Amino acid sequence: MYDPDTTTRFWLIRHALVAPESLSILYGTLDVPLCAATRAADAPRYAAIAARLPRDAVWLVTPLSRTRLTADSIMEAGYGAISTDVEPALIEQDFGAWQGLPMRDFVNRPSQHPFWPVGGDEEPPDGETFAAMRDRVGDALERLAKVHAGRNIIAISHGGAIRAAIAHALDLSAHQALSLAVDNLSITRIERHRHAWRFVSLNEQISI
């Protein structure tokens, strides 16, 4: 049964588009920069997102600057300044030794996913599988839901981590989760109720 006093509502936002030179590599947890030109052009989108988000919320970013800068842009576009906490568990998948390699190196590999260069159950050298990221993200969501029960949580995160969050909420396999589209600056919403997770929306695009 829905209980607003204990339901924790997660607003998961994928960071803004990264710089063009980074799009051609598997960047994972590398701290790549945002695209400056796109960030300036997206000012109306930031304002629309700021108007859409709840005001009484806990704000989280990951250790990577692209999430911090995206949060700053939303706040500067009308949400207003608010303190943010860094949540390392919501960081992108660690691709280990493969990070920084050209995306073309991953074309037509036997373990490749139809929509992603690394298979869902594949473990990169010195990295982590999607399943490991799903466990990491899922544990963090359960912890945050207890600590902030009944609150709104706005988390600026990454495409892979948001897919992992949905996989945790809906009990999806890694292969299924990697088939989900999570666009930059889109909003995904899930809720932690007393006894279950509820999926609300995926890849919400805010009208300008």
What does this structure look like?
The chain is built from seven helices and six strands, in the order βαααβαβαβααββ. With 208 residues, it is an alpha/beta fold. It has a single domain (8-204), classed as 3-Layer(aba) Sandwich (Rossmann fold). A six-stranded mixed beta sheet has the order 3-2-4-1-5-6. α3 (43-52) packs across α4 and α5 crosses α6 (159-170). The longest helix is centred in the middle third of the chain and has 18 residues, at 130-147. The radius of gyration is 17 Å and the shape is globular.
Shape: globular
Give the name of the CATH architecture: 3-Layer(aba) Sandwich
Number of strands: 6
Oligomeric assembly: single chain
CATH superfamily: Phosphoglycerate mutase-like
Specify the number of helices.
7
Q: Measured on Cα atoms, how large is the radius of gyration?
A: 17 Å
Q: What about the largest sheet? A: 6 strands, mixed
CATH fold-level topology: Rossmann fold
Structural class: alpha/beta
Strand content: 15-25%
In helices, the fraction of residues equals 25-40%
